[in-house]
């Protein structure tokens, strides 16, 4: 029985005693589930670079919202919209690869954001909150926004599950079957943008990218079905949130970064396990 | 589904002076063809000869650059439910977690609404396709754990499960072993017997010989007609740029004439 007390103190007490930890956990799990669903398509459709760019692209939008005094959610959405629209425009007009267009807008918007932050006294101290989030400062309104976003993302993914699956398998087949691949691709980008926009207040605009890639990447290694990959990603993401918050509470680490470190560590742990199992199996077959 | 039955034989593919390519780059010109239900044509040519580009144009993936093209009585890309397309490229080799049966089930997605459940006819079509390509026992296996030949069989099972009137197949026997090839040829014979049209791009002259017609391509149509008439050393020389002869279903190089740059 002597071990139970310390275990409760370590793993449960932080959440039982502190309402801010309860809110952080609830918000984190909502972020983890949204990121699991959307991250699945980021991983399977190779959208990591545009996802990264969107994560940085929200910075000037949020900075603008602080300077001009409007909702930071709206500011982030404007930043993401400029990024997606800009990439589409540059790719279409210049015939350059989307990589170049994404890279240009990525660095351009990031630089614009830094210029805005550096030239405004009102933003001093806010830059960290934008990039790395304020996990322990989330309020009920943030949780409601995340819950609504989760419902919206779920609805879109259920509606588009079949065309999305065919696109991940073979975009040409999707088009040959009559699915509008261009429209579905844009819908995926909007889902990624929406995830970043609603998550940046808790995990931060930079770290949300880790929640998009880490759990979904681990899920891809484990699962044999896209839906199951999402479930694994949601479980791994949620466990990462829980463990990250526990670590942050006891060791006084930054909460958002702790969560993402655990999520990324999960990916590498799963990779090692899968590789060891594979070499074990092939050795057994050879014998 | 007996697509050949009913009132007369409506053509499945009609092309007149068709030019195909990408953007402003013309890859293949002056294609004239007329395919009725039950017909089959093998597109034979070296890399860059226009085989895949012609298939993609038939599938509605790229627009014709010039000339006329009707697929099942409409512009290409309209009658998508009646067309099965097998491309050379599939992404799931990279990361996609998907079982063999899920790949074959995709064939039926557009036959149903986005949210409606599979019906027994879909399950039958899927089971039938997998049985005909000999992959029922692989149904629950992840695609990434299958060999290249097994994966190709699953893709072909997907094509069969569509029960389409037009089958557009890019390198359908790629990676198949001899039993796999035999199953493929048997399945195509059955597809033609029910009235489906098969257009396949291939390097395999043995496979091409099984088709009703062979179209030799080299940026233009070098020859078009029954295999016995078309697969001559002269035509093969004009198509591939090297002297070739057709021995027991295989191409054998007989002489090098000039550098080939297709």
Would you kindly provide a written description of the structure presented here, covering whatever features stand out?
The complex is a heterodimer of chains A (287) and B (262). Chain A has 13 helices and no strands. In chain A, helix 3 (19-44) runs parallel beside helix 8 (140-169), helix 4 (48-68) runs antiparallel to helix 7 (126-132) and helix 11 packs parallel to helix 13 (255-286). Chain A is mostly helical and 287 residues long. The termini of chain A are far apart. Chain B has 262 residues and is α/β, with parallel strands linked by helices. Chain B has helices spanning 51-58, 100-105, 120-132, 148-161, 178-193, 205-209, 227-230, 233-240; strands at 13-22, 25-35, 40-44, 66-71, 83-86, 166-170, 197-202, 213-217, 221-225, 242-247, 250-256. A six-stranded mixed beta sheet of chain B has the order 5-6-7-3-8-9, with helices on both faces. Chain B is globular, with a radius of gyration of 18 Å. The N and C termini of chain B lie far apart (40 Å). Classes of the chains: A mainly alpha (287), B alpha/beta (262). At the A-B interface, helix 8, helix 9, helix 11 and helix 12 of A face loops of B.
